[in-house]
Design brief:
This is Hydantoinase/oxoprolinase family protein. InterPro entries: ACX-like_C, Hydant_A_N, Hydantoinase_A, Oxoprolinase-like. Pfam families: Hydant_A_C, Hydant_A_N, Hydantoinase_A. The chain is built from 16 helices and 35 strands. The relative contact order is 0.11.
C-alpha cells in the first residue's frame, strides 16, 4: 500500500492507494506540533501501518522554522573580510519609496558570524591556504563557547574547489562532534556569494529542526509497526528517503505545494491534458504553476521571507488567498482579502472555534456555494449564522447587503489569483488560453470557472477528490535529485566539449548518490546550461537534449540560447555579441514505475437537489449534485453546484460539466 500524508496550514490530508482501494482522510492540522496532526491522520484512516510499503510525507516544518525564526542556534563562517556578507546583501531596494525600508534580516546575529583566514581564486586555485593554526586557536574555542547546534560554512569561490570548506568542516567535526555542519558546496555549488551564503545559512538553520521532526515521526511509526520506506517531498517535485533529507533539509521548504503540482499533473495526464496551469487553493494560500508538455516549470532560485535560496524548485507563485483568508479594510478604506488568514486555529467564523472575522469560506456559505451541513461530506458541521454575522460589519461599512459584501470579497480573492497566474504564464511568454486550468485544494474548484473566464481559458479539469491532491502527489511522485556547478566559459567549440564532459561527471556523481540511498534503477536525466551574453547580469536556462551531449558545438548551443533568450525577453535573437556558459545543471529522476490511479468513491445515482446561489447581483436557481453519485454519461449545464467529500465545484452559467473515463470532471465554456 502507498500512503501520502500532507500537512497543510488548515488541514492534514491522507491518501492511501492499493489496487482499486482508495482511502481519503482529512483531519485538522496542529500547527504547534505538525507531527501530531500527521500521525492523527494515519490513526483516523484506520490503516494498519504494518501494511504500508511506501509512506510519502510533506509538511511546512522547514518553512515555519524560517518564518517564525524557530530554527537552530547557528554560527556562520565566511572568508576573512566577508563576515558581513549576509547583512550587506545586494545593493537593491524592494520598496524605493518606503522611508523605513530595511533589508530582510537573516536568522543569525552578527556576533555569531566568524571568519576563516583563507582565499581561493575564481578558478579554484589557492591564493592563501587555510590557516589551520588560527582556526584551532581562535575559531574552534569561539564556536565551543557559543553553544551552537549548527554551523554554516560559505568560503569565497568554494564552488570552484571546496578543498578549504571540506578541511574546515573536518576540523569542526573533530572538535565539536555534536554540531551539525553544512558547507556551501553541499547545497549550492554556484557563484554569487550572497545567494550561496543565504542558502547555506538557511539550510543549517532548519537542518536540526527537520532532523528532530523526522526522528520523532519515525519513532512513532516504528512503535506502530511501520516497516516500509519513509520518504519526504522536496520543493523540486521529487521525493527522497528521509535519511537523505537530513543532509539537504533546505530542499523541503515547499514540499506541500510541489506535491500538489505533481499530483495534478499526473491525474490530468490520464485525460490527455499535458499543458496545464495548476491552481491549488487551500486553507491559507493559493499556489499556481505552469506545466508544459507534462513537465512542471522549474526555477533555479526562490526566496523565503525575502531571503534567497539557490536550489531547484518548481516555479510556483503563491498568494495569500485561501479558504481562511480574511476580508478587511485597509487604511485607505478599501476592501482587501488576505494575506492574513484565520488558519486552522481559530479558523473561519463558521468553524465555531472562536473566529469572528470574515473569511473566504464564510463568504461561500453566505452566497450558498458551500452548505454548512455538507462540509467534508457532513463530517464537519459549520455555523452558517456565524458566517453571516462575520460579514455584517463589512456590509454595513460599504452599504451593501451581506451577500454583496461576501461576493465582493470573493471577487477580490479571484483577482489576486488571476494576477498570480499571469506571473507564471503571460510574464513567462506563455498565453494562458493555450492551457487547461487544473484546480484543486478544498477551495480551488469553487473559484476555477470565474478565474478561467477572466483569463480566457475554456477548459477546466477538476481531479477526483480534488481537496487531497497534494497528498496524492506524495505517492505519485518520482525520486529526484539535482546537481549544479558554476563553470564560467566563453562559448566556443572547446567550451561546448567541456560542457559535455562536465555533464558526464555530474551524472556519475548523481548515480553514485542514488546508489548510496539504496535506490536502484535506470535514471532519467535532464541537462541545462545557464547562459548569457557577456556583460549581462543574469542567465537564461537552456535545456540540452540528452542525445546531443556527445556532439555539442558552439553553433548548436548559440541557436538554443538565442531561442530561449528571445522567448524570455522578446529580443536578442541575433547573436551579435559573445555568449558565455555560466552554470551547468543536471537533474536525475528514478521513476516510481506507474503512479497509482486516483479514483472517486462511487455512490448510487441520486436526483439533484434544488438550490439558490447568489451570483453577480442576484439569486439564481440551480441544481446541487453529489460528485460521488454522478453518472459517467451525465452532462451538467450551469448554473450548478457539485458537492464532493473533499471539494465543491461551482459550474456558473455558460459552462457545462461531465465526467470522463479517468474520473476527471471536465468543465467547458460554451462558445
Amino acid at each position: 500500500m502507498r500512503v501520502g500524508v500532507e500537512v497543510g496550514g488548515t488541514f492534514t490530508d491522507l491518501v492511501a492507494v492499493e489496487g482499486g482501494r482508495l482511502v481519503v482522510t482529512k483531519v485538522p492540522s496542529t500547527p504547534k506540533s505538525p507531527d501530531v496532526g500527521a500521525f492523527a491522520a494515519l490513526t483516523a484512516s484506520g490503516i494498519d501501518l504494518a501494511s504500508i510499503e511506501d509512506l510519502g510525507h510533506g509538511s511546512t516544518v522547514a518553512t515555519n522554522a524560517v518564518l517564525e525564526r524557530k530554527g537552530a542556534t547557528v554560527a556562520f563562517i565566511a572568508t576573512a573580510g566577508f563576515r558581513d556578507l549576509l547583512f550587506m546583501q545586494r545593493h537593491d531596494r524592494r520598496n524605493i519609496y518606503d522611508l523605513f525600508y530595511a533589508k530582510p534580516a537573516p536568522p543569525v546575529r552578527r556576533k555569531d558570524c566568524f571568519e576563516a583566514v583563507e582565499r581561493l581564486r575564481a578558478d579554484g586555485s589557492i591564493e592563501k591556504p587555510l590557516d589551520e593554526a588560527k582556526v584551532k586557536a581562535e575559531l574552534l574555542p569561539a564556536l565551543r563557547d557559543g553553544g551552537y547546534r549548527a554551523v554554516a560554512i560559505c568560503l569565497l569561490n568554494a564552488y570552484a574547489d571546496p578543498v578549504h570548506e571540506k578541511r574546515l568542516a573536518a576540523l569542526i567535526g573533530d572538535a565539536l562532534p555534536g554540531v551539525l555542519v553544512t558547507c556551501s558546496h553541499q547545497v549550492a555549488r554556484e557563484f554569487r556569494e550572497f545567494e550561496r551564503a543565504s542558502t547555506t545559512l538557511l539550510s543549517a538553520y532548519v537542518q536540526p529542526v527537520i532532523d528532530g521532526y523526522l526522528h520523532r515521526f519515525e519513532g512513532k511509526l516504528a512503535e506502530a509497526g511501520f516497516k516500509g520506506r519513509f520518504t519526504v517531498m522536496q520543493s523540486n517535485g521529487g521525493r527522497l528517503p528521509a535519511e537523505a533529507m537530513r543532509q539537504s533539509a533546505i530542499t523541503a521548504l515547499y514540499s506541500g505545494p510541489a506535491a500538489g503540482v505533481v499530483g495534478a499533473t499526473r491525474q490530468a495526464a490520464r485525460s490527455g491534458y499535458k499543458d496545464l496551469i495548476t491552481f491549488d487553493m487551500g486553507g491559507t494560500s493559493t499556489d499556481v504553476c505552469l506545466v508544459q508538455d507534462g513537465r512542471p516549470s522549474l526555477a533555479a532560485e526562490t526566496e523565503i521571507d525575502g531571503l534567497p535560496i539557490r536550489t531547484p524548485v518548481l516555479d510556483i507563485v503563491s498568494v495569500g488567498a485561501g479558504g481562511g483568508s480574511l476580508a478587511w479594510v485597509d487604511d485607505g478604506g478599501m476592501l482587501r482579502v488576505g494575506p492574513q488568514s484565520a488558519g486552522a486555529d481559530p479558523g473561519p467564523a463558521c468553524y465555531g472555534r472562536g473566529g469572528t472575522e470574515p473569511a473566504t469560506t464564510d463568504a461561500h456559505i453566505v452566497i450558498g456555494t458551500i452548505r454548512p451541513g455538507a462540509f467534508l461530506g457532513g463530517r464537519m458541521q459549520l455555523d452558517g449564522e456565524a458566517a453571516r454575522r462575520a460579514f455584517e460589519p463589512l456590509a454595513e461599512r460599504f452599504a451593501l447587503s451581506v451577500e454583496q459584501a461576501a461576493s465582493s470579497a470573493l471577487q477580490l480573492a479571484d483577482a489576486n489569483i488571476v494576477r498570480a497566474i499571469q506571473l507564471v504564464s503571460t510574464e513567462r511568454g506563455r498565453d494562458p488560453r493555450d492551457y487547461a486550468l487544473v484546480p484543486f485544494g478544498g477551495a480551488g474548484p469553487l473559484h476555477a470557472a470565474r478565474i478561467a473566464e477572466e483569463l480566457g481559458i475554456s477548459t477546466i479539469v477538476v481531479p477526483p477528490n480534488a481537496g487531497v491532491i497534494s497528498a496524492y502527489g506524495l505517492v505519485a511522485s518520482d525520486y529526484t535529485k539535482f546537481d549544479a556547478v558554476t563553470r564560467k566559459m566563453k562559448l566556443d567549440d572547446a567550451a561546448a566539449r567541456d560542457a559535455g564532459r562536465i555533464f558526464g561527471e555530474m551524472r556519475d556523481r548523481l548515480a553514485a548518490q542514488f546508489a548510496d540511498m539504496k535506490l536502484p534503477g535506470e535514471l532519467d536525466y535532464t541537462h541545462t546550461l545557464d547562459m548569457r551574453f557577456v556583460g549581462q547580469a543574469f542567465e537564461v536556462g537552456v535545456e540540452i537534449p540528452a542525445e546531443r551531449l556527445d556532439s555539442l558545438d558552439a553553433t548548436y548551443l548559440s541557436g538554443l540560447f538565442a531561442d530561449a533568450h528571445h522567448r524570455t525577453f522578446m529580443h536578442g535573437a541575433t547573436l551579435d555579441r559573445p555568449v558565455e556558459i555560466v552554470t551547468l545543471r543536471v537533474g536525475a529522476t528514478l521513476p516510481i514505475g506507474g503512479a497509482p490511479k486516483l479514483d472517486r468513491e462511487k455512490l448510487e445515482a441520486r436526483a439533484p437537489e434544488q438550490a439558490k446561489i447568489f451570483h453577480g447581483e442576484a439569486w439564481l436557481d440551480c441544481a446541487r449534485h453529489t460528485a460521488e453519485a454522478l453518472d459517467a454519461d451525465e452532462q451538467i449545464t450551469g448554473p450548478a453546484v457539485i458537492e464532493g467529500y473533499t471539494a465543491t465545484t461551482w459550474v456558473p452559467p455558460g459552462w457545462t460539466a461531465g465526467l470522463d473515463a479517468a474520473d476527471n470532471l471536465i468543465l467547458r465554456r460554451s462558445p
